[in-house]
Amino acid sequence: MAVPKRRQSKGRSRRRRSHDFLTPLQLASCPQCSTPVPTHVVCPTCGYYQGRTLVADEKDAD
């Protein structure tokens, strides 16, 4: 079985792992209710997306 001949340095390991981090979500404010919402997603509070209301509130349906 293959075994490494030398120990891998900290710099080499850290350079390899430099891309393993998580990126934060891109948040934009909803133009209707101005709550922070991820981009390209229907607003969970008002149901607004791309200039129209896609999801109606249950309060409005009564």
From TrEMBL:
One of its GO terms (molecular function) is structural constituent of ribosome. Keywords: Ribonucleoprotein, Ribosomal protein. The keyword GTP-binding does not apply. GO terms for biological process: translation. Residues 1-18 have a biased composition (Basic residues). Coiled coil: none annotated. One of its GO terms (cellular component) is large ribosomal subunit. Residues 1-20 are annotated as: Disordered. It comes from the Bacteria. Belongs to the bacterial ribosomal protein bL32 family. PANTHER family: 50S RIBOSOMAL PROTEIN L32 (PTHR35534), LARGE RIBOSOMAL SUBUNIT PROTEIN BL32 (PTHR35534:SF1). This is Large ribosomal subunit protein bL32. It comes from Planctopirus ephydatiae.
